[in-house]
Amino acid sequence: MTDAASPEPGHDCPLCPRLHDFIAAWREREPGWFNAPVPTFLPPEGEGSVRLLIVGLAPGLRGANRTGRPFTGDFAGDLLYGTLIAQGLARGEFKARPDDGLELVGTAITNAVRCVPPENKPVGAEIATCRTFLRPTIARFPNLRAILTLGSIAHQSTVRALGERVAALPFRHGGRQEAGGIALFSSYHCSRYNTNTGVLTQEMFVSVFKEIAAFLKNQTQAP
Ligand code: URA
């Protein structure tokens, strides 16, 4: 069963028939894989410690859909977790396995769409339906100060989840805007495609995180 007010879809969430059927087919093909909506990755200190929420697009087929942890098992995770560790937003070693012991620090990671979409492309109705979970995910962190969206789809869905107009808060790599008392940072998605084509370099990605880390530090020092 899927509870509409819950931040996490049920294991067999039926709300997007196309994604439900796609996962069902992969359960048959790869019964050892996770093959379900991928839950938000939380720090061990719990919801109250989260000041930064990172919103990705959707699980990769052989990444998060296989392992059950966002950005774990595909290239995007190597860049994301390496950068998080370097900026003090995660600790331990990232070994691309959910049992690698990596821990987030003051940070949570979720996806705009929780189920793996065919061809990595969720359709508009699926993105809108999965906001049913993005909204309460944002609301569950009482000390949230910042959100980083990865890519324009995650950005637009987050803006809508925050009750703002997309036209008023357009996506821009390296952008920082205010939305409902939260600093909304945005970056190009750290996908292999974007890094291979030079749309996003490691330097560009690191610089977004440096800005976020400085912002969070400043928040801590503010009276
Ligand atoms: N893995 C995820 O969990 N999300 C993405 O957006 C990409 C890869």
Backbone CA Rg: 16 Å
Question: How many DSSP H or I helices?
Answer: 7
Q: Which fold does the CATH topology refer to?
A: Uracil-DNA Glycosylase, subunit E
Instruction: Give the averaged pLDDT, no decimals.
Output: 96
Strand content: 5-15%
List ligands, each type once.
uracil
Class based on secondary structure composition and strand pairing: alpha/beta
Element-level helix/strand string: HEHHEEEHEHEEHH
Percent range of helical residues: 25-40%
DSSP summary, beta strand count: 7
Uncertain residue ranges? none
User: How many strands, what sense, and barrel or not for the largest sheet?
Assistant: 5 strands, mixed
Please give a structural write-up.
- This protein is an alpha/beta fold and 223 residues long.
- It has a single domain, classed as Uracil-DNA glycosylase-like domain (Uracil-DNA Glycosylase, subunit E, 3-Layer(aba) Sandwich), CATH 3.40.470.
- It is 36% helix and 13% strand.
- The chain contains 7 helices and 7 strands; from the N terminus they run H-E-H-H-E-E-E-H-E-H-E-E-H-H.
- It has helices at 17-29, 64-67, 75-86, 124-139, 152-161, 192-196, 202-221, and strands spanning 52-56, 90-91, 103-104, 107-111, 146-150, 176-179, 182-187.
- Strands 4-1-5-7-6 form a 5-stranded mixed beta sheet, with helices on both faces.
- Strand 6 and strand 7 form a beta hairpin.
- Helix 4 (124-139) crosses helix 5.
- The chain starts with 16 loop residues before the first helix and ends with a helix.
- The relative contact order is 0.16.
- The mean pLDDT is 96.
- The structure holds uracil.
- Uracil is lined by residues 56-60, 63-64, 70-71, 74, 76, 111.
